[in-house]
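Researcher: Here's my situation. A collaborator sent me these components and asked whether they could plausibly form a single complex. I don't have experimental data yet, so a predicted model of the whole assembly would be a useful starting point for our discussion.
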Amino acid sequence: MTQLPDGRYVDDAPYDPEASLRLPERRDLDAPNWLLIWRKFRKHRLGLISGIFLLSAYLLLPFAGFFAPYTANERDEERLYAPPQAINWWYEGKFIGPFVYPTTAEADLETFQWVFKPDTTRPMKLEFFCRRGSYKLAGLIETDLHLFCAPEGATIFLLGSDRLGRDVFSRILYGAQLSLTVGLIGIAVSFTLGILLGSMAGYFGGWIDWVINRAIEILRSLPELPLWLALSAAVPSNWGPVAVFFIISIILGILDWPGLARSVRAKFLSLREEEYVRAAEMMGATSGRVIRKHLLPNFMSHLIASATLSIPAMILGETALSFLGLGLRAPAVSWGVMLNDAQNLASIEIYPWTAVPMIPIIVVVLAFNFLGDGLRDSLDPYDH
Amino acid sequence: MEILRYTIYRFGTMLLTLLVVSVLIFIIINLPPGDYLSNQIAELKASGQSAGVAKAEFLRREYALDRPLWEQYMIWMGFMPGPNGFSGLIQGDYGWSFEFDRPVAEIVGDSLWLTVLVNFAAVMFVYAAALPLGVLAAAKSRTWIDYITALIGYLGLATPNFLLALIMFYYGHKYFDLPIGGLMDPVYEGQPMSWDKLQSILLHLIVPTFVIGTSGASAMQQRLRANMLDELGKPYVETAIAKGLSPARMLTKYPLRVAFNPFVADIGNLLPSMVSGSVLVSVVLGLQTIGPTLLTALKTQDQFLSAFVLMFVALLTLVGTMISDILLVMLDPRIRYEGREA
């Protein structure tokens, strides 16, 4: 502490007048772009949770067969429309671990329905890491190991069984494989088309721009579903499930690109006049190189965010098509195919569990929406 | 005068678009190999029924299906005279439905008007629901009202239309005694319009309108809220409050009018998805719109019927978009001179 001649006191500690200005921003100035995005995204709670949920869901997809107690088309002819079963832990006041009661089917001659009565005298323990129906892990490795399955003589229908006595829970897991990937393939198609056509229109201008713009306008002004229906009706009925799956996702993508192309074009129109673009052109860069190296990186992150927001539309699209019977077909399992069973009111009223696949659909669509919102908000780290 | 010129211009572009769309639809319809009649002929020949073959062959010639594709298109549209007086779409001859063995015009009949009615009701519902909710959510932003509307909005966006239809259908009947299925009581079908019939139709419209409109209303409500929030942060709002305007008057007099623009413009984006939704919902709820007809026609490759229904659906959206564009120009003088950025 020293006293200045005019009587004021000044602290002796070294002081840099600009340090306080620099210090909090130093970290941000050095940080790479993705780190800034990540920092901002982390604060978006809902988006973060949705992102983690979706990531784990996609990572677990190849192992759906392992977590499912039954295989996709395994039938239990004795138990059609069996109601959901609970897993119990306590038997007569004693903890004996997870078990189920075996059920017996009786015909109710008044309502003409099967009534399933649990036999509460015989608790049967669930088996873990057991060997049952064989499936292909990740579509490649043939195995018959399941995480858990019902003991011999009992069943484990966590979410009930459907019209043909197939386990709804297992089918939801298998259905996720198709329902979740259909959106990814569709978005890949729409992304490629959208970027290609949008950047061509925005960069070259002139008649190319005019033609592409008109195409965008026309496609955007048409209702999607009837066109989807018409295109899917054109898929020959003798094609295998895999081919149908690919063609359906491509159809979904083909009609989705205009929205993306329009935003790409708008960005290009404004960026085309920048000095660095002219510099690159004067140094002899080809149009392709200018587009790829100088223009696209500017708003790639925005495109990813908008792609995230359009995946749910594709998932819903697949569901709707399969629901109407024009999308994926029977041996293939997807959530839409499963909901096809719940098409009439009677089944919803009497067997409400056949409509359960709607819950994963809603959850996944919501998650994609939240993730997209979070990404969109955090993609401009410099914008406060 | 400006408006009139714009209307004529907009009408012209709509017609051109419709022309392109007709080519597109014709191509899509002809994508699957074979057509209804040649499939039928093959089937009949296989089972040895020669009487049917003659009729099918006759229809094939009658509707020019034995000609090259481009000629078929010209005849279908009515740009070229067809054989035996088949005059094409633009002269009001929609062709023959092979599946139902009746003229297309007879099959679609009333359902065209019902389709328009359902979609119109849904659009009205979207506005009626989105406007108050969006304004309320913006005015009370970051309170429980905002969060609840946001939650409902997100759920509305995420629930597939057809599932919402089934759920509403079930609970609407169980708890509110709303009628199940169809657009009117079966008693009134084919009857001339009367007061009772109108009432019956209105009662049947409640569930479909709600179902078709929900996702659109959620999207629009969110956008209106965002626009309103942008406006509410501006200094003029602060001035208005400082001068002692009541909150309701302040909201409706200034920010709402500015935020209202995109609200009208959006109908162009909204309409295609609503028409899509109405097709799907009609199938689930068994409404007598052209949705179910389209599905059967597509499944059986009944080309004249499905092509006509697709054309009609496209026309419906194009006309709707055109009307919204013209309304927008009347509402906002700025757009009139600059032209709307595509």
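Model: Some features of this prediction you could bring to your collaborator: The mean pLDDT of chain A is 81. Residues 232 and 277 of chain A are 43 Å apart (CA to CA).
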